[in-house]
Design goal:
Length: 181
């Protein structure tokens, strides 16, 4: 055994899903401290953006904190709720495989785009409601989105639906006959 191999941590060589002390004591579906930290990042970014409102109006730090939260925060919390359901069906690689990690990269891109689009949609929806209520201000939009993001971070995650009867796991669902109109 070379010194380089001796420095390799055991977790890096343990196969995924093997019984290690960390996952042997954690019941399936329980929230680990790492999961909790990841789930609390979007609300933390929102509260940080609210705190940045105390900075002077032209401060680049204030603008960066608010823009970063508004562009990804609410959507990331919503994608976190439906994460297990999104991971139930992996992306299908093209016939000619040039990228061995296509499925992982495709799923990450899907979650990122969903987070951005859901964030923009939530911001537009909250702003529209506040305009209709004659209570619109940028601070109120940010506060409302931060509260909704915090609420979404505490919501339980959706489970993946079980496969439909008659289909083997890993096979594509049957296509319906007839017109798609």
């Amino acid at each position: 055994m070379t010194p380089q191999n001796a420095a390799t941590p055991r977790a890096a060589t343990t196969p995924r899903g093997a019984m290690t002390p960390q996952n042997a004591m954690t019941p399936r579906g329980a929230t680990t401290p790492q999961d909790l930290v990841i789930r609390m990042l979007p609300p933390f970014a929102g509260w940080l953006a609210l705190a940045a409102l105390a900075l002077p109006g032209g401060s680049p730090l204030r603008g960066a904190a608010v823009a970063a939260f508004l562009s990804v925060g609410p959507g990331a919390a919503l994608v976190g709720i439906c994460g297990p359901a999104l991971r139930a069906r992996r992306a299908e690689a093209p016939v000619e495989r040039r990228d061995p990690h296509f499925e992982r990269h495709s799923d990450l891109l899907e979650r990122l785009m969903l987070a951005v689009l859901l964030s923009v949609s939530a911001a537009m929806l909250v702003a529209t409601v506040l305009i209709a209520a004659h209570a619109f201000s940028g601070d109120r939009v940010l506060l409302t989105l931060t509260l909704l993001t915090t609420l979404a971070a505490f919501c339980p995650r959706l489970r993946a639906s079980p496969p439909t009867p008659g289909t083997a796991p890993g096979t594509a669902p049957r296509k319906r006959k007839g017109s798609t109109l």
